[in-house]
Amino acid sequence: MTRKVADCRKAPSVSNCTLRIAGEEEEVVRAATEHAISVHEHQDTPELRQMVRDSLEDEKPGI
Questions:
Q1: DSSP string covering 7-50
Q2: pTM, whole model, 2 decimals?
Q3: pLDDT in tens, the chain (63 residues)
Q4: Which terminal residue of the chain has fewer beta carbons within 10 Å of its beta carbon, N or C?
């Protein structure tokens, strides 16, 4: 299974967040959503979770 990556640097942010989360898809969606809620003050909605899922990229080997 290919690991997935969520990277805050690829999303607009007033805090210039640099967090990068990698793991299995469901782990990353859960962790990135929790981060978006607690740090970036987003609301926990199905749309947020879908936005997170859509932004995931495959992890490149060796990173």
A1: EGGGS--TT----EEEESHHHHHHHHHHHHHHTT-----HHHHH
A2: 0.87
A3: 789 999 999 887 778 899 999 999 999 999 999 999 999 999 999 999 999 999 999 999 875
A4: N
